[in-house]
Amino acid sequence: MLLTIVSFLIIFSIxxxxxxxxxxFSAKAIGVKVEEFGFGYPPKIFGRKFxxxxxxxxxxxxxxxxxxxxxxxxxxxxSSKSAGxxxxxxxxxxxxxxxxxxxxxxxxxxVPHDVLVGRVNVEEVVPDSPAALAGLVAGDTxxxxxxTEIRNxxxxxxxxxxxxxxxxxxxxxxxxxxxxTVSLSPRWQPPAGEGPVGISLQTLDYQIIxxxxxxxxxxxxxxxxxxxxxxxxxxxxxxxxxxSVPFDVVGPVGLAQMTGDVxxxxxxxxxxxxxxxxxxxxxINLLPLPALDGGRILFVFIEWIRGGRRISPRxxxxxxxxGFFLLIGLMxxxxxxxxxxxxxx
Length: 345
What we know:
The chain is of the alpha+beta class. The chain has helices spanning about 1-30, 85-110, 130-135, 155-160, 215-240, 250-265, 265-285, 295-305, 315-345; strands spanning about 35-50, 55-70, 115-125, 140-145, 150, 170-175, 180-185, 200-210. The strands form 2 sheets. Strands 3, 4, 5, 6, 7 and 8 form a 6-stranded antiparallel sheet that branches. A two-stranded antiparallel ribbon has the order 1-2. Helix 1 packs across helix 7 (about 265-285) and helix 2 packs antiparallel against helix 8 (about 295-305).
């Protein structure tokens, strides 16, 4: 329990504070006064002022905020700045959260980590599945997919999920020691229990080896992992729309439980998990919903479409405040659901 709490507080602080630092430094860069830098949401536990900014710790640990001067007639106010500068401020937090995973993934790759390596064997092929139609049979060994060596079942599953609806080239070794390359398309909506390709795999004759990447190699690999994570996120959203992926949301309690499980696996997986959370926060914050950064960016674009005529600040603030309370209500409801699920499990 102590490991779960401590590890969750550390990674949550890294993700949230880095996001708010993006807003903080962008505000400074465009000449906007920062009134308060808060971790968590009010009510306030305590705060201390340094210079023009109060730094506070608050009771609701569901995020953080940067409160800026917003007087449109004050040249230190955000509302007095041009649309471009306001877009920079609103998008800066998500931008930092998008860049942070590149650093975290790179460090995770440099940390020595165990990898299961073996022969990926086809145990069963579902009739009329993409694998069956491509000619795969039980006893085949998966050597590579799209030219990438496959060393365990997780690697094959990841490539399949990355290429849903697209054609992939699978090189296999048959039982008679001949090789062939087949083409198939992983399905978006496979029947229950079949998976996108329609095969069950097992890693045979395996061994666990320790791997680590050099500094020079870790950066491009990290960028690739971030891109693949975005693709997986996109595929998950499309899967939700199609009904092939169940709608399952976790709140802070659920995330804390997941963090504890990952922390027990080692520093490398914990860095990867933190990177994944940061990237998800970047994407979610850019959604055009009230109270989120994306919602505020939307109002700036509406202003631009209207030829510079802004929507009444009172109306905009009311919309964002309503969205904020709805968001808090949703988070509390999800947290309650997490507690029930953990208690029953």
